[in-house]
Design brief:
The protein is α/β, with parallel strands linked by helices. 46% of the residues lie in helices and 15% in strands. The protein contains 22 helices and 16 strands. It has a six-stranded mixed sheet with strand order 4-5-15-10-11-14, with helices on both faces. A five-stranded parallel sheet has the order 9-6-7-8-16, sandwiched between helices. β1 and β2 form a beta hairpin. It is globular. It starts with a strand and ends with a helix. It binds pyridoxal-5'-phosphate (PLP). Pyridoxal-5'-phosphate is lined by residues 108, 110, 143, 226, 263-269, 318-319, 397, 423-424.
């Protein structure tokens, strides 16, 4: 299948190329030329395991990958999750379901894509005959960095470099990254926020000068952020998987519409749900949940995207984003695949920090999406009440989504089955979760985790316990202007 750029000036002959490259040459994002229809495969999925569902969904876009080999890669990737299930569904109350996406190696939903991406990329570059070494640059708001490091560590012919915002990630997230093992990895703090990291990385991608310098060294750049289609496509699977599980357990009948509530930052996760709907999954509303950085809430209400606003550091750092990259893919679709218009909106965003969609576009967005937000106080309250009521411990990101799910239900009276996507283990943010549940303020992450366990009996994952004794390998910090030279230096390192 051919892939188009959202900005209209590049094409990829197939998914392999789109994944190996990451970003289109014109600065746009690759999107599939068409969406394969899988609405008639749902029944079949009720009878298969997660890895097989993934093989089916991913394979429908990746026609040039060998089907059997792709399936074994999925079996390997999802074998790294507890019980081989990347997306177990937990029922907490009538009509309220939690899709737990955090049982992978690094305890965040990013693992669903990043346990598989190394295979997709390695294979993709082989299919395209790319001979250079691939250097993956990642800007992280906390979870992508670790999941990508773990996925790509010691991958053959690939190096990976992660940039995270100083002070913009949780203690556990930082520890997870700075203790990363592997000979092909590097982690650097950037003095700034996530948007600064993301902009710095995007500028490096589009710099002809750096790309030429790297080419001379036999290196090309690629991305493991959700701007890479290879990150999005594995995420489509769990929307189908959740639906199939609800059918299997008799909660719904095939054809019934269900809603998904998604804690949103860079708009990758929820976009995968929108793609699933385009592929024939019966989805009612996609509900976009934001924290105090509620630029998306405003966008879906007014049609105006305006990133000129105060940036808040919240207890859900992976959603502390003002410029959501993947919204570009949605704009492309909602404009009737108008690349010229999408490109001009992205140019406005870059120049003025804002753009607007027209009335018709806004109306069609409102048909598919609902958006709301929860501030810090609401988030703490939600964690507390959810534990009191259901004995279930939410991480702060999932709590934002759960809070918005309740607000939506109250406002709309929508009685359809609603699935809340749970994106991280509470033990990645133990201080805040503990504070919410017991009122205790303990600054040490491990002591907080221990107290959280004593309060809730929610088991502490091995990945967290093992962090305590790991050697810290990375401590470099640079200013935004220092990212380029850091990349060049790492490219030279043997
Ligand atoms: C990345 C992340 C999000 C946001 O997902 P997007 O795809 O960027 O919208 C939400 N919660 C957690 C825990 C995350 O790691």
């Amino acid at each position: 299948m051919k892939f188009l750029s959202t900005r209209g000036k590049s094409v990829a002959p197939n998914a392999a190329y789109a994944i190996a490259k990451g970003l289109a040459e014109d600065g746009g994002l690759f999107v599939p030329e068409t969406f394969p229809y899988l609405g008639d495969k749902i029944k079949e999925m009720t009878e298969t395991e997660y890895a097989e569902r993934a093989g089916l969904v991913i394979g429908s876009f990746l026609n040039e990958y060998d089907e059997k080999e792709l399936l074994s890669a999925c079996v390997r990737a999802y074998g790294k999750f507890e019980d081989g299930d990347a997306a177990p569904l937990v029922k907490t109350d009538d009509g309220f379901f939690i899709l737990e996406l955090f049982h992978g190696p690094t305890l965040a939903f990013k693992d669903v894509a990043l346990t598989l991406l190394p295979y997709l990329m390695r294979k993709g570059s082989d299919i395209c005959g790319i001979k250079e070494q691939i250097l993956i640059l990642v800007a992280t708001s906390g979870d992508t960095g670790k999941a990508a490091l773990e996925g790509f560590k010691d991958a053959e012919g690939i190096k990976i470099m992660v940039f995270y915002p100083t002070g913009g990630v949780s203690d556990m997230q930082k520890l997870q990254m700075c203790t990363q093992e592997g000979d092909n990895v590097n982690v650097v703090a950037v003095n700034g926020n996530f948007d600064d990291c993301q902009t710095a990385v995007k500028n490096i991608f589009s710099s002809a000068k750096i790309n030429a310098e790297l080419k001379e060294k036999g290196v090309i750049l690629s991305s493991a952020n959700s701007i890479n289609f290879g990150r999005l496509v594995p995420q489509i699977t769990y929307y189908f998987s959740a639906y199939a599980d609800l059918v299997s357990s008799g909660e719904i009948n095939i054809g019934d519409e269900i809603n998904f509530v998604v804690p949103t930052g860079n708009f990758g996760n929820i976009l995968a749900g929108y793609y699933a709907k385009k592929m024939g999954l019966p989805v009612g509303k996609l509900i976009c949940a934001s924290n105090s950085n509620n630029v998306l809430t405003e966008f879906f209400v007014s049609g105006d995207y305006d990133a000129n606003r105060e940036f808040f550091k919240t207890m859900s750092p992976s959603m502390d984003i003002l410029v959501s990259s993947n919204l570009e893919r949605l704009l492309f679709e909602v404009s009737g695949r108008n690349a010229e218009l999408t490109a001009s909106r992205m140019a406005e965003l870059k120049k003025y920090g804002k753009y607007s969609v027209n009335k018709e576009e806004l109306a069609s967005l409102k048909k598919e999406f609902y958006a709301d937000c929860a501030d810090e106080e609401e988030c703490l309250e939600e964690i507390n009440e959810f534990f009191e009521e259901y004995g279930y411990v939410l991480d702060p990101h999932t709590a934002v989504a759960a809070c918005v799910a309740e607000k939506y239900k109250e406002y709309s009276g929508d009685g359809r089955v609603t699935v809340v996507l749970s994106t991280a283990s509470p033990y990645k943010f133990p201080q805040n979760v503990l504070k919410a549940i017991s009122g205790e303020n303990i600054s040490d992450a491990f002591k907080s985790a221990k107290r959280l366990y004593e309060n809730t009996a929610c088991p502490i994952p091995e990945e967290i316990l093992s962090l305590k004794n790991k050697e810290k390998r990375f401590s470099e910090a640079v200013d935004k202007s220092g990212t380029e030279s850091a990349v060049l230096a790492f490219a030279d390192k043997k």
